[in-house]
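ok new one. same drill as before - structure tokens go in, u give me an amino acid for every spot. 280 of them this time. try not to just spam alanines like last time pls lmao
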């Protein structure tokens, strides 16, 4: 077994918006930090509800400044409550897959400078099947798909998994149920998705990651621009978030993810129509 340190890059995604991606990513990031992991969150959502706003942060710079060569990556990354770090990439992310060769080299070099600073990268991908969402999910080593008990959440998740498995050859997905009433309901939702996937898709593997109960404290956390984990660490939702973080860390199956951080960035940056970088 090789000894080199591996960074895990996990995308958190959904077919439908508003299912709790940003909330889950912020809380999981804090949970991992509390377990001694150094976490970088990449905000790759182009929507309005970005993590910096959710946590009351006011980033002065974004990935845009890095792409324009105005700032180093380490100047753009900011500290978030709970000790994790955030790369506020939202406004620059559209360009990420349309960089020219020299910009890519520059960015890859910049990314090299931060890779020893983190153990885990969590990506808030945004919802749907736009090319941005696809690229981040394709490039990540592991994918967590969030669904709720709303029928549209299920059908949209199905559409997302369909595109990722057929077009991008991604065959493994971890499924997280949010807003569930109890474990039985959550099992039921997962089984429904699995049934449809088995029937109509070319056998992607769906692993049940767990569930988070509905908790009105989430809304309070938004108002306080903090997370439920910090404000109410003992609510059932907070406990399930901690349990999820533990479970993710305990997944020792190396087959569950592939590559390293360089692999991720290369894969992401090579997803565009412009010529590929030579392999490192
Ligand atoms: N388990 C939950 N129980 C209650 N409210 C939740 C839960 N998860 C998320 N929310 C709320 O749902 C809304 C959407 O969450 P958000 O994280 O912004 O979703 P997304 O990033 O998928 O669009 C927020 O107001 C959030 O507080
Ligand atoms: Mg969001």
């Amino acid at each position: 077994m090789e000894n080199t340190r591996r960074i895990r890059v996990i995308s958190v995604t959904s077919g439908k918006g508003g299912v709790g991606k940003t909330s889950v990513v912020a809380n999981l990031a804090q949970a991992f930090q509390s377990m001694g992991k150094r976490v970088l969150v990449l905000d790759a959502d182009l929507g309005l509800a970005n993590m910096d706003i959710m946590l009351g942060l006011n980033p002065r710079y974004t990935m845009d400044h890095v792409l324009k060569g105005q700032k180093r990556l380490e100047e753009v990354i900011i500290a978030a409550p709970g000790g994790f770090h955030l790369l506020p990439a939202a406004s620059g992310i559209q360009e990420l897959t349309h960089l020219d060769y020299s910009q890519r080299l520059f960015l890859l070099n910049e990314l090299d400078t931060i890779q020893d600073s983190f153990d885990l990268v969590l990506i808030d991908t945004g919802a749907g099947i736009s090319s941005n969402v696809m690229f981040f999910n394709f490039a990540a080593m592991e994918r967590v798909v969030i669904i709720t008990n709303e029928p549209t959440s299920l059908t949209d998740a199905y559409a997302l998994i369909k595109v990722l498995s057929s077009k991008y050859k991604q065959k493994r997905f971890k499924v997280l149920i949010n807003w569930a009433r109890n474990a039985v309901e959550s099992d039921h939702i997962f089984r429904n998705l699995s049934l449809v996937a088995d029937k109509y898709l070319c056998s992607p593997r769906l692993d049940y990651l767990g569930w988070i109960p509905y908790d009105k404290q989430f809304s309070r956390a938004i108002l306080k621009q903090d997370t439920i984990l910090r404000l109410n660490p003992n609510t059932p939702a907070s406990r399930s978030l901690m349990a999820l973080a533990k479970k993710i860390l305990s997944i020792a199956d190396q087959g569950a993810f592939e590559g390293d951080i360089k692999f991720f960035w290369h894969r992401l940056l090579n997803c565009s129509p412009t010529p590929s970088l030579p392999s490192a």
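Residues 21-22, 45, 47, 49, 124 surround magnesium ion (ligand 2) (CB under 6 Å). and btw The chain is about 45% helix and 20% strand.
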